[in-house]
Fold:
Amino acid sequence: MSGVEDSLRILRSKGYRVTQPRKLVLKVLERAEGPVSPYDIQKILQQEGERLNHVTIYRILDLFCLLNLAHKVLLCGGFVKCALGKREGCHRFMVCRQCGALREFADKALCEEESAIARDFGFVAEHHFSEFFGLCSNCNS
Amino acid sequence: MSGVEDSLRILRSKGYRVTQPRKLVLKVLERAEGPVSPYDIQKILQQEGERLNHVTIYRILDLFCLLNLAHKVLLCGGFVKCALGKREGCHRFMVCRQCGALREFADKALCEEESAIARDFGFVAEHHFSEFFGLCSNCNS
DNA sequence: GTTGGTGCAAAGGATTTGCAACTTG
DNA sequence: CAAGTTGCAAATCCTTTGCACCAAC
Structure:
């Protein structure tokens, strides 16, 4: 997903309403450097003079994740705007343990290899969740 | 890790004490069908007439994860006893979305492929978390 | 007897629910 | 105007901290 407008279009096309709170949360996710928690989002908005109830933010993030407009990064618990759109293969993350930098990627070959491994165990994998933890290019020199 | 005794041996060898609470938590993890939360563990012990403070359980689980005697399953937030011991490659999980069954595995080739992908992005991956979500052999027939 | 572990109390977050009021299409 | 959203209050749950006491070695 690139740009707030694209996300709004998707919302509309799925029958969801384009509301002020949803636009505000999208804007924060768009500009965030890394993963942000619901309360982070609330604080950021407050600094800009906007007010949103935290419950509203929780519900909006739930919806965004459902629609794949955003993802929850499990290693840190924060949310990020999806950076890939409809790309082949599951969306995954690399997280830098030093600076917290985050990079989203998708790799179809990796998906297929994982499915094959699962199959060897009689398991049908529908979704592959993965996050790499290490050092980004800036921090590993 | 197989068996409570092995885990106790590792605890001792690293200079940690073998205490009653640690033995109790190990026993619960050993017998659990799937991932259990700290409060799950407390409830299970209560049903057996044992009492442990929840803070103690949190601390014990932290230690077990540090020593790789247990893992936290990110997709569900629960803890499982490590089933692999020192195996080459990161420890990963397949979780059945229907019955909750969990299978731990390690795959060195997958680890290497993931490291290669990371390297392409200038990233040095130190640990690969991954969990597959789908249907186990019992549920996909 | 020391040191490391545990229990307790309490604080601080995080997350969810139900319902009334408001907005969007 | 009707249905979908939001705000509010409150409840619940999760997790952590500091300190006094206890148990393991």
Remarks:
- The first helix of chain A runs from residue 4 to 13.
- Chain A touches chain B at residues 74-75, 94, 96-97, 103, 105, 107, 109-110, 113-114, 117-118, 121-137, 140 (CB under 8 Å).
- Residues 3-81 of chain A form a domain with the Arc Repressor Mutant, subunit A fold (CATH 1.10.10.10).
